Structure formats: C-alpha cells, structure tokens
C-alpha cells in the first residue's frame, strides 16, 4: 500500500490535495496528514474520511512514505523536502522553493511530465496562474511565438485563508490596500526590475515549462475581490502573420483545455469554483501577428492541488510499469 504524506494538510490547498487523492488515485493508499505543531492533534474531515493531523518534525520516519505533497510555504519546503527525498520519497512541492533549481523539474503533466526523468525526486508545482496560462499557450508554440503579454485577475484564495477572511470581513490588515470593492495591482513583493515576484514567477516559469528561450514576456498581476478562480488575459504575438483558423483548430484539438470557439461565449471565475477544467474564451485576432484570449481556472484545484496529484498519478503509473 502506498503511503502519501500531505504536508500542510490543514490549509486550503492541503485539504484539496487530500480530496484530489481520493478522486484521482485508484491504487491502494494511506494518507498521512502532516502540519506544524499548531495543528498537531486536530482531526480534519475530507470526503467523509477523518484524519488526525501529525506534527511535521525531523524525528519522523521519512522512509515510510512513497510520495509527499507539500503546501506549507517555502520555508517548510526548504527545511523538509530534501529529508523526504533522501529517504527515497518523491516530493511534489507547491511553493516556489525549488522551481528554478536546475535539477528540479517544473511540471504541468499535460505538457512536460517526461522532463522529470533523471533529475531530482523533488518536483516543483508551478504558480497557479502559470499553470492555466501555459495550458492555453502550449498548443500554439509550434506557430512560432515572439511575445507573450499576461494580465491576471487573481482571486483572494490565492493568498490562503488570510485573503478569504479579509474579503469576508472587509478589514484591511493583510493586503497592502483594501480588497473590498477594489483591484490591487500588486501580488507579492516588488523586485528591483519593477516586477512583483508573482509577475517574475509567471515570466520565468513560462520559459522553463515551455522551453521558450529568446522571447519577450511581460506580466501584470492583480488581486481582485473574487473568492475562487483566476482569470488571465493573454496576448500572444507570433513571429509571422497568422492564419486564425489554424490557431483556433490547434486549441480545439488540445485535450488539456476547454476551448469556447464562439467569440461571444465565455466562462467566468465564478463558474470555475467547483471544477478543475481550464477554459479558453474571448479569443480574437489582433493585427496580423497577434491573438488575445481570456483563460480562467480554479487556482486551488488545477492551479495547485489537482496538478500536484496528477503528477503523483503519473509517477505511480510509471513506477508500476518499471
């Protein structure tokens, strides 16, 4: 029986990871819920299953685990992920701690799962907005991309319970400015180049996942007063004039997205609150070489938990056939 550790099991994404393990993993498994000392001893109920939360310490037997999914912040990942990996466990980490280490793969299973081979057993889960964006861009890479421009509309659940509570209470003690009836064009800290860390993550992760070098990418990431679901407007400029019907056909043929070809039909963030589908709509041609499209996805599901568990599912399949 597989033993799967969920680190950060009491958080929004941790809860969803357990739920997605129930939904997606068909092999026999045991889930061990791990968290900090503040949550140790608590009982959480997910999909009618109860789990007593155990404290994550350096004294636990890391060798008992086959897979571990982390959603407890970068510091916890940096302190514990390699302990699991050194004991023979695959680690899927939802923080940004390992995304840009050369030996760690950054995986969206529908796009580049095979890149984990011969690398570290620590696999990084990309940023939530990056995941849904690259799923929409991947079918278009062969047309020759020159520039990608991102504008995001990211829900408060991307900040965890603190963001949700601030929108519920309208008390501004977490975000840099009030989120109620507002849009905040800042997610994470500012960097010296003028980007926020969130914007830089989207730029750098897109390059790594899609293996796109020597292209220009810009991103403006904003927090909006929505509980769940991220929206991303993506403008893609190609190296040569495009045939719009060929672009549209490539999106239709992609099994990783739900593409709404009718330009007047679209899906909103509210509508993806309970789904792990990524929807592409509002696509239109801009000039001779560009398209614009609006992409929505659930940041807690496909943007975090679902993607992580899909990686585990693929690893299990490969290991069973090894």
Distance between the termini: 17 Å
What's the helical proportion of residues?
25-40%
The computed structural class is alpha/beta
User: How confident is the prediction overall: mean pLDDT?
Assistant: 96
Strand fraction: 25-35%
Please describe the biggest sheet, giving its number of strands, its sense, and whether it closes into a barrel.
7 strands, parallel
Q: Strand arrangement, largest sheet?
A: 5-2-1-6-7-9-8
Shape: globular
Number of alpha- plus pi-helical segments = 8
Strand/helix succession: EHEEEEEHEEHEHEHHEEHEEEH
Walk me through this protein's architecture.
With 322 residues, this protein is of the alpha/beta class. Helix content is 29%, strand content 25%. It contains 8 helices and 15 strands. The protein has helices at residues 12-24, 74-86, 109-112, 128-137, 161-169, 197-210, 244-253, 301-320; strands at residues 2-7, 29-35, 43-46, 49-52, 54-55, 67-70, 90-93, 105-106, 122-124, 145-154, 216-223, 230-238, 258-259, 279-286, 290-297. The strands form 3 sheets. It has a 7-stranded parallel β-sheet, sandwiched between helices. Strands 11-10-12-15-14-13 form a 6-stranded mixed β-sheet. A hairpin with a 2-residue loop joins β3 and β4 (49-52). α1 (12-24) packs across α8 (301-320), α4 (128-137) runs parallel beside α6 (197-210) and α4 packs across α8 (301-320). The model has no long low-confidence stretch (mean pLDDT 96).
């Amino acid at each position: 029986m597989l033993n799967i550790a969920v680190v950060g099991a009491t958080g929004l994404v941790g809860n969803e990871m357990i739920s997605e393990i129930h939904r997606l993993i068909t092999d026999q498994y045991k889930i061990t819920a791990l968290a900090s000392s503040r949550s140790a001893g608590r009982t959480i109920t997910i999909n009618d299953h109860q789990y007593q939360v155990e404290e994550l310490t350096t004294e636990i037997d890391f060798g008992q685990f086959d897979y571990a999914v982390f959603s407890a912040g970068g510091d916890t990942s940096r302190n514990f992920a390699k302990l699991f990996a050194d004991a023979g466990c695959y680690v899927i980490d939802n923080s940004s701690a390992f995304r840009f280490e050369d030996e760690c793969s950054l995986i969206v299973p529908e796009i580049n799962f095979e890149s984990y081979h011969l690398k570290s057993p620590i696999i990084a889960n990309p940023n939530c907005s990056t995941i849904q964006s690259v799923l929409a861009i991947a079918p278009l890479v062969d047309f020759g991309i020159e520039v990608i421009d991102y504008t995001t509309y990211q829900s408060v659940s991307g900040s965890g319970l603190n963001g949700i509570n601030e929108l519920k209470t309208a008390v501004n003690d977490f975000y840099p400015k009030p989120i109620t009836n507002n849009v905040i064009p800042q997610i994470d800290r500012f960097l010296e180049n003028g980007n926020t860390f969130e914007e830089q993550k989207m730029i750098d992760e897109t390059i790594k996942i899609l293996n796109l070098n020597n292209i220009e990418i810009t991103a403006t990431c904003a927090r909006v007063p929505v509980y769940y679901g991220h929206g991303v407007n993506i403008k893609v400029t190609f190296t040569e004039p495009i045939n719009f019907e060929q672009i549209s056909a490539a999106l239709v043929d992609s099994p990783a997205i739900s593409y709404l070809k009718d330009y007047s039909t679209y899906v909103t963030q509210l509508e993806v609150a309970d789904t792990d589908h990524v929807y592409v709509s509002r696509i239109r041609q801009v000039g001779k070489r560009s398209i614009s499209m609006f992409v929505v996805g659930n940041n807690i599901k496909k943007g975090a938990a679902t993607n992580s568990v899909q990686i585990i599912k693929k690893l299990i399949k490969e290991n069973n056939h090894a």
